[in-house]
Design brief:
Structural class: alpha+beta
Strand content: 15-25%
Number of helices: 4
Shape: globular
Largest sheet: 2 strands, antiparallel
């Protein structure tokens, strides 16, 4: 994963309709603004209450936030999201 894709993921987590992380100063990342980039890189991130609930499988990010991106040659949308079955320890393809 390169820097740009990582920053894009951070931006998506922080700027979602219902954010999963907070504390990301200067988002979205813009390299042309050096002063914002400095605060962006020094941000102290924390999970939001919603982010904690998603991590604990009590909430579903795809139910509340729009997903529309290409990842590894796969177009992910809210209707086409891969899931992980923790009990079976395997990925479940979108229906």
């Amino acid at each position: 994963m390169g820097d740009w894709s990582f920053w894009g993921l951070l931006d998506a987590l922080a700027l979602a309709r219902v954010p999963l992380i907070e504390g990301l100063a200067g988002a979205p990342f813009r390299p042309e603004s050096a002063s914002l980039a400095s605060s962006y890189f020094q941000s102290e991130l924390r999970l939001t209450t919603f982010g904690e609930a998603v991590l604990e499988c009590r909430e579903d990010n795809a139910a509340l936030n729009e997903i529309d991106r290409w990842w590894g040659g796969t177009h992910l949308t809210n209707n086409r999201v891969w899931r992980f079955d923790a009990e079976e320890e395997r990925l479940i393809a979108p229906a």
